[in-house]
Design a protein that fits this description.
8-stranded mixed beta sheet, Rossmann fold, two-stranded antiparallel ribbon, single chain, about 35% helix
């Protein structure tokens, strides 16, 4: 009996959005997960958006744990060549973490890591997606170049904290995307304000206004700011992201506002894209 034809790859993905940071520790993966879940709550023509989430952090995959996926779960393989993305909270997800264990280090050189990312992109059966959110590794290395070369990236979201050193690295990330001609759709300022759980006092521990300043410097927008709140970390560690567990809460609504601003930026960027015509 002939095998059924399986169409893998990203041909039916409308937008590919890279969530990136110039350095680690700014909450990039947490932002990517909660942003993807927030996007899935938005509607188009009366229906929810179809959202995918790809973990491009080959050396330090964290999405399986943050989504509550155990080590025993692996993607189904079709016809020996294509992966079925793992469903998680309504998202289609793929990560090298599904093919290893939490304690297995990926001791690979850059080309091997790039090859693994290419396989996950091109050999996964993504189907029709409105947005594929790609959680990038920190920095400006091989994986970033592989994504820009192998996929038609609609734009990037740069995550930073207001801290000066983080903003310095955020600028490097923006410059990297400019060099590979990927538009920066906006900045997400994480850990912007801490509110004391006892007295309610608000304090900008890492500084303030940095995200808006960088956005203005590079003619992009501040998509939104998020607080320094231990519940975000606790829910992520439990595999129950806060955008899912407290959908009506203030933090989840902040992620939803960022998702709405991102969709606006994507639509505007599509309109601005030049139309190339060839005439005799």
């Amino acid at each position: 009996m002939a095998k059924a034809v399986v169409e893998s790859g990203m041909k039916k993905v409308k937008y590919i959005v890279a969530v990136a940071s110039g350095k680690g520790g700014v909450g990039k993966s947490t932002t990517a997960v909660n942003l993807a879940l927030a996007l899935a709550t938005l509607s188009k023509d009366g229906k929810g958006l179809n959202i995918g989430l790809l973990d491009a952090d080959i050396y330090g995959p964290s999405l399986p744990k943050m989504l509550g996926i155990t080590d025993s779960v692996q993607p189904q393989v079709v016809n020996g060549t294509a992966f079925v993305p793992v469903p998680a909270h309504g998202l289609k997800t793929m990560s090298i973490g599904y093919l290893t264990t939490e304690s297995t280090p990926m001791v690979w050189r850059g080309p091997m890591a790039g090859g693994a990312l290419t396989q996950m992109m091109e050999q996964s059966i993504w189907g029709e997606l409105d947005v594929l959110v790609v959680d990038m590794p920190p920095g400006t290395g091989d994986i970033q170049l592989t994504l820009s070369q192998k996929a038609k990236v609609s734009g990037a979201v740069v995550v930073t904290t207001p801290q000066d050193i983080a903003l310095l690295d955020a600028r490097k990330g923006i410059e990297m995307f400019r060099k590979v001609e990927v538009p920066v759709l906006g900045i997400v300022e994480n850990m912007a304000v801490h509110i004391c759980s006892n007295c309610g006092h608000a304090e900008s521990i890492f500084g303030e206004g940095g995200g808006q300043k960088v956005a203005s410097e590079y003619d992009t927008r501040l998509l939104g700011s998020l607080p320094l709140d231990k519940r975000i970390r606790e829910e992520g560690d439990r595999g129950t992201p806060i955008a899912l567990t407290e959908p009506e809460g203030e933090i989840a609504q902040s992620y939803r506002a960022i998702a709405e601003n991102l969709m606006t930026a994507l639509a505007e960027n599509t309109v601005k894209a030049p139309v190339i015509s060839i005439e005799d």
